[in-house]
């Protein structure tokens, strides 16, 4: 459960999909002069560098955020690019923000953030860049259960496990149901991979049945390497902010052009 390290995959096509939707949601939520809470169950280290040995080894960022910038997939005023430029101004041109630092770009002094990360090395790295948040060195599902409903009550929860444990696929609909009952106004976002064996389908089917008005956005893309099992990215969003469905549709159109 503690072997996954996102440094090998930071900035890849799945990150592009996930982070573009997250940034759009945060940009909308922070337009209103009302405080909010940001929660994340699997925060990672928060900051990555695309010239690191891990990133260079896989080359996934070159096919993801680097290509997106070079070919203009996102408009210049897109919230993800705004966050990316802000992080680079502070941490250098090779920096790439994980979701905690994307959130930090939008959060205001009145907002609150809770980040959970169980991996010891990732947790240590996270504490050095996420002083805006309360950082929990514990299981992220337990953290969310303990805090929800949060104060401020308005806010967003990002669930982004590594899925190294196959049981996550069956446990997640139940977990989301528990959180939604406790926090019915919360924006609950779940990222999941699309794999060649389609193991996500039972999970998304259960979520569709339980929450027919939720947003589900799925995009496909070529595998990062021959034989690689991830061939797409999916996001489920309960209580999606206004305009997020349109942003998801726009991204889906872009991804259909990727070869």
TrEMBL record:
Residues annotated as binding S-adenosyl-L-methionine: 19, 42, 99, 117, 139-140, 160
GO function terms (MF aspect): 23S rRNA (adenine(2030)-N(6))-methyltransferase activity; RNA binding
Site (Interaction with substrate rRNA): 4
Record key words, sorted: Methyltransferase, RNA-binding, rRNA processing, S-adenosyl-L-methionine, Transferase
Enzyme Commission number(s) from the entry: 2.1.1.266
Record's keyword annotation contains RNA-binding: yes
Top-level class of the enzyme under EC nomenclature: transferase
Reaction equation(s) it catalyzes: adenosine(2030) in 23S rRNA + S-adenosyl-L-methionine = N(6)-methyladenosine(2030) in 23S rRNA + S-adenosyl-L-homocysteine + H(+)
Biological-process GO terms, alphabetical: rRNA base methylation
GO cellular component labels: cytosol
Signal peptide residue numbers: none
Active site: 160
Membrane-spanning parts: none
SUPFAM superfamilies per UniProt: S-adenosyl-L-methionine-dependent methyltransferases (SSF53335)
Function, as annotated: Specifically methylates the adenine in position 2030 of 23S rRNA.
PANTHER family, per database record: RIBOSOMAL RNA LARGE SUBUNIT METHYLTRANSFERASE J
Subunit structure: Monomer.
Family the entry assigns: Belongs to the RlmJ family.
Annotated protein name in UniProt: Ribosomal RNA large subunit methyltransferase J
Protein's organism: Paracoccus alkanivorans
């Amino acid at each position: 459960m503690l072997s996954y390290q996102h440094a090998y995959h930071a900035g890849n096509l799945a990150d592009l999909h996930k982070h573009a939707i997250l940034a759009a949601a945060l940009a909308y939520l922070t337009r209103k002069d009302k405080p909010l809470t940001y929660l994340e169950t699997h925060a990672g280290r928060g900051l990555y560098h695309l010239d690191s040995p891990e990133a260079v080894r896989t080359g996934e960022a070159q096919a993801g955020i680097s290509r997106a910038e070079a070919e203009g997939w996102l408009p210049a005023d897109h919230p993800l690019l705004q966050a990316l430029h802000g992080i680079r101004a502070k941490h250098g041109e090779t920096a790439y923000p994980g979701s905690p630092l994307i959130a930090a770009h939008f959060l205001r002094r009145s907002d609150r953030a809770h980040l959970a990360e169980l991996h010891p090395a990732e947790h240590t790295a996270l504490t050095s860049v996420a002083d805006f948040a309360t950082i929990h060195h514990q299981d992220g599902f337990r953290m969310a259960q303990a805090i929800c409903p949060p104060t401020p009550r308005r806010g967003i929860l990002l669930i982004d496990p590594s899925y190294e444990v196959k049981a996550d696929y069956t446990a997640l609909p139940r977990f989301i149901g528990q959180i939604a009952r406790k926090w019915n106004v919360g924006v609950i976002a779940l990222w999941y991979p699309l794999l060649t064996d389609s193991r996500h389908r039972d999970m998304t089917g259960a979520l569709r049945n339980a929450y027919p008005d939720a947003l589900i956005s799925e995009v496909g893309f070529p595998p990062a390497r021959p034989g690689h099992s991830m061939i797409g990215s999916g996001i489920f969003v309960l209580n999606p902010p206004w305009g997020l469905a349109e942003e998801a549709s726009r991204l889906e159109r872009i991804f259909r052009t990727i070869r």
